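Discussion board: Methods & Data

I've been asked by a reviewer to show the raw model output for two of the constructs in my manuscript, not just the figures. I'm not sure how much to include, so I'm pasting the format here to get opinions. Each protein appears as its amino acid sequence followed by a line of discrete structure tokens. Is this the kind of thing reviewers expect to see in a supplement, or should I convert it first? Here is construct A:
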Amino acid sequence: MSGSDVIPMAISGSDLLALAPHLALSVTIVLVMLLIGIKRVYVVSSAVSMIGLGASALLAIVQLYQSISIEVSQQITPLFRVDSFSLFFVAIICCAALSLSLFAFCYFMRLNDDRDEYQLLLLLATLGGVTLATSVHFIGALIGLEMMSMALYGMLAYPVHSHENSGASLESAFKYLILSAVASATMLFGMGLLYAETGLLTVIGVGALVSDLSVLVGIGLLFIFAGMAFKLSLVPFHLWTPDVYEGGPMPASAFLATVGKVAVAAFMLRLIMHTNALSIPSVYFAIYSVAIVSVLLGNLLALRQLSLKRLLAYSSIAHMGYLLIAILSFSVRSDGSISSETGLAIAAVVFYLLAYVVMSVGAFGCASLVSSSEHESDSIADYTGLFWRSPWLALVLTSMLLSLAGIPLTGGFISKFLVFFAAVEASQWILLLVLVVGSGIGLYYYLRVIFQMLQSPSKLEHLELKGSNWETLGAVSMLLLVTVGTFILGVYPEPMLNLVEEVVLSL
């Protein structure tokens, strides 16, 4: 691990430079607030939001390649660490948020109510995700997690006046609010136990004392994992997921499924690596059990869903279970060094998260483009005959569903192959069987949606595709870019795999 042993308490100029993506988001948030306060112009506030997100993503990508070339990481107060690993996830979060901002712009264009605040909430939630991804301190992680969650409450309840099912959106927000508060309290209790035993709240500091195993450390880590499992929709903490996805507006559900999960997963990966939590039998058994039931139950419950959002919700449960299979393949040596098998497993986790975000953004993006705040095309029956009504949109959605199913030549196939190979290297035979069975079940319900799109277009009155105009130009371009990205990850993944290997070295 690179970096100084002495953690600076004051923030220097170089620290501010390292926090450039965070600062760009913060400035954008203030600017959008001022614009809303001066005069509400939805196009202007949305454009400023997208520019700010694009600038943050660009800054993170530039810093990422600089960090890789000079092999350095920077500790910024005890709370945050800017290295290749955190910058990689900051770039993913900002790029995903930019895509979802474009889709949200089209979705709320027809809303007969105030619309500007949604972009502001999206920016705040993105800043929370970025903060969480760079945190190496439990307080920093809690600040980022709560910043993201508080903004998501408003996003899920939006809009409450003009939506055809506004009661469902309010119910969705309340469910997420109450259960998220329980999850945060659970994590806080776990952090309190760790602090009571070690006197530390830094991830690295606690990890150095895990070898001196005590009951409180194991219980504390279990409570923290339970809180994160809620955010990742892992069984048995998944019950809120389909209802919240279905009740909230399509762009809010998309944000929850992508940015909300990848930020938590990034912190969890850092926590497990630095604390070597899998060396504690109780923690290992808990994660092992959760991985198995998440994959099987998530896929089985998705089989009979008639709502596309509920189907994608249960699908996300299964995909987070696949992620845990790769994490369970970690084997950190007693001296704290990373074995070659663990390096492969970490790379599988990081690549899987990237592919999952691309696939989910594409799938939800297609659904957002045929929906609006007035009417959502959520039922799978709404997509009957989509191939005949809008071939290009059906092609994009088919590509995303095939990638989620793990079909060859897509990013989903390569990500599942890496997880499979990592599990083989770690001799996780039971988890391998679960992975194969879960993928087989998943293939059925993804193909069911594709089959529905191929049917003869008998009743299409509920499917209102937006015309090709300036309002949808950005969203359409983003969908095409995401589709190309999915196939690049599946056909020529070597450059991204090389980048992921470099990122893993900084962890």
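Construct B, same format:
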Amino acid sequence: MVQQRKVPRNCINYEGHIFKPVSIPLKDLEQIKLTKEEITALHYADFSGFKQQEAAQKMGISQASFSRDLASAHQKVASAFFEIKAILFEEPSDKEGV
């Protein structure tokens, strides 16, 4: 059983649901799920270009927690690209969003 996070995190609202290779049916692909925290870490670090400390402050977490989320996201995305997998995005709840 996964333990609930003790610190609520400020996550972005991401409209995507699935990212997969073209011309391969989803049913034929292994699927990897990115959490809303991992999506937010990727957005702040790689898309927006924030330094880890600044991004962690935006999420309301420590830099170490941000670093773990980002490393996990990078590993999952690399696995999806090089092992031909689909990426599923966790949908944020109604009370979250930046």
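Answer (T.O., handling editor elsewhere):
This is acceptable in a supplement if you add a one-line summary per construct. For B, something like: The first strand starts at residue 18 and ends at 19.
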